[in-house]
């Protein structure tokens, strides 16, 4: 996720057209409504666009482990004489106090090794596995990560703690109570929850209309959710369970009941009830609750509504005018203009080329992006707030649940355009290889505006079509679907877009809250304020790995000028250009009023005018960070989300800003992001990494039901060329452009459009207003 290489100049990769200087006129065609839908055999029908292939210059160094490789590692761990004393992780009697393998996946290769391989300086990249073992039988139980290799298994294979990845207080170990919530622990928690709640079922039925006798008991009509984080540093284990109706979208059917348990350690006999909260009144035991209930001392609040029709998404109401017509869509009328190597997950498009990788934690990643050379990593985090023990103490790290493992197949024509190209997502989960069919969609899109256009009085007029390649992944993480778009624009820009939609995690509505944590959005529910933060990593190698981060501020100052003597001192603007010297300056906020430009440049690589070549980091929509810097639930585990941008030196020992298991140990995470900056390394002409946060402060509204609207729940970022080329902007070689010259006319004096030989295909239905001839009026 952190690899980048040399710039490669733009050039068409389709190979289907060559440059031309002949003029081409657009003619009026049959405009009957069914022309475009005629069968392929018809002379005027557009052919279905076919995928076009490319062969990667080198086989991908990012291949996931195969099932035989996984099996060989499992066998070696069990028979290597390491004394691991492993139990079968699939055993139905597996206990928390056992040692067992939790997960195995490919260890991400070091950037230096991959660079050598892709440059041809080595024949292969060393291959290792990352192994996560639940060590419940250890003197100090926990979940420990190791690396095993080199692979394939041989006499030289070893297993070592993965301590060079993690700078937290416990190295590659998370103490047990902050570790995995896997099957053995789920069974232990379920046992005490079912026992406790069945004993007060008559009370909960009266107060909330909900009962719980266990997840498999037919009398049960409710469910609970295990709050995150459920530990502080791995030594404690405290959880609050909100109670919800077991039905459609339970996130939006909460009750006013919350129950807390202590679930620390591997001995389930020590698990116990801590307290019960109803109507914000604390009861320290079931006996206290029953005594108050029997005495009629409990003030009841409204039960959660049983009318859940407000959660339906089926179409209702009268159809809007002309809504019976098919909505606009993306079409590849002349065939696809990108190429894909599905074996190596390698793509080329209009001068761009890159490899992709997929894993369980974060999903799709990009490597060796040739044009500007940078890579991207995504992580997501959500912090909630509210006036109850569950909402106040909730801070999800979606990486914990597996952003990649929760990827879904997009719906053709709705989630992705028709005729998109799809890639399977293959990753490892536990000790098995998993594949999500067609989880990644790839398509070229019209960006909706021309990249450049201008009319020069009566001399000439031009317009250059704007397009980009989009690689999209969608993951369903509980109540939300996240959409991630990575766009590669033909002008050399890279766009990052993140969207959220789904069911909000609603709060129980209390009139006395007075909307301080969100407005009322239903009969018994209120919206819950929360913040989504998604952390992206971009490793810049602009031409080479010697880069500098520059802040160009727009400052206002008082000046006097001899040509304005009557003005005296007056306000004017200028640039204030400063380079980040060391990592002590590397934690950055978004510039107020946008009055600064962040740029990564290579001072030793100049364009024709002597300007350092670089790329801008352009904030887009909603580049937010956590509003609460000292929340105990994200104390040290959420450091990566506490500033808009950060700049650090690239190190193979700092591959990610967080870790999947950090979310439940906020005081002792595996990765402390601010530790990357503690050595205060120099940043000028060094190998730099930019960490950028996107997200949304979700101000919940009634329009979030049934599902949040993605139009507003949207965040974006652009990496844009800055003095990158010597010949100006990077679109002059594009053939999908038109220019009119006033002195280049036909026989009757009408300026003729120059379209570079690229015209709309014959199957596209055009009307009189689409005619190019005559569009230029001089």
Automatic annotation (TrEMBL):
<comment type="similarity">
    <text>Belongs to the copper/topaquinone oxidase family.</text>
</comment>
<feature type="domain" description="DUF1965">
    <location>
        <begin position="254"/>
        <end position="317"/>
    </location>
</feature>
<dbReference type="Pfam" id="PF09248">
    <property type="entry name" value="DUF1965"/>
</dbReference>
<feature type="active site" description="Proton acceptor">
    <location>
        <position position="398"/>
    </location>
</feature>
<keyword id="KW-0732">Signal</keyword>
<dbReference type="GO" id="GO:0009308">
    <property type="term" value="P:amine metabolic process"/>
</dbReference>
<feature type="domain" description="Copper amine oxidase N2-terminal">
    <location>
        <begin position="91"/>
        <end position="153"/>
    </location>
</feature>
<dbReference type="Pfam" id="PF01179">
    <property type="entry name" value="Cu_amine_oxid"/>
</dbReference>
<feature type="domain" description="Copper amine oxidase catalytic">
    <location>
        <begin position="329"/>
        <end position="724"/>
    </location>
</feature>
<keyword id="KW-0479">Metal-binding</keyword>
<dbReference type="InterPro" id="IPR036460">
    <property type="entry name" value="Cu_amine_oxidase_C_sf"/>
</dbReference>
<dbReference type="InterPro" id="IPR016182">
    <property type="entry name" value="Cu_amine_oxidase_N-reg"/>
</dbReference>
<dbReference type="InterPro" id="IPR015328">
    <property type="entry name" value="DUF1965"/>
</dbReference>
<keyword id="KW-0801">TPQ</keyword>
<dbReference type="InterPro" id="IPR049948">
    <property type="entry name" value="Cu_Am_ox_TPQ-bd"/>
</dbReference>
<feature type="active site" description="Schiff-base intermediate with substrate; via topaquinone">
    <location>
        <position position="480"/>
    </location>
</feature>
<dbReference type="InterPro" id="IPR015798">
    <property type="entry name" value="Cu_amine_oxidase_C"/>
</dbReference>
<keyword id="KW-0560">Oxidoreductase</keyword>
<dbReference type="GO" id="GO:0005507">
    <property type="term" value="F:copper ion binding"/>
</dbReference>
<dbReference type="GO" id="GO:0005886">
    <property type="term" value="C:plasma membrane"/>
</dbReference>
<protein>
    <recommendedName>
        <fullName>Amine oxidase</fullName>
        <ecNumber>1.4.3.-</ecNumber>
    </recommendedName>
</protein>
<dbReference type="GO" id="GO:0048038">
    <property type="term" value="F:quinone binding"/>
</dbReference>
<feature type="modified residue" description="2',4',5'-topaquinone">
    <location>
        <position position="480"/>
    </location>
</feature>
<dbReference type="GO" id="GO:0008131">
    <property type="term" value="F:primary methylamine oxidase activity"/>
</dbReference>
<dbReference type="InterPro" id="IPR015800">
    <property type="entry name" value="Cu_amine_oxidase_N2"/>
</dbReference>
<feature type="signal peptide">
    <location>
        <begin position="1"/>
        <end position="15"/>
    </location>
</feature>
<dbReference type="Pfam" id="PF02727">
    <property type="entry name" value="Cu_amine_oxidN2"/>
</dbReference>
<keyword id="KW-0186">Copper</keyword>
<dbReference type="InterPro" id="IPR000269">
    <property type="entry name" value="Cu_amine_oxidase"/>
</dbReference>
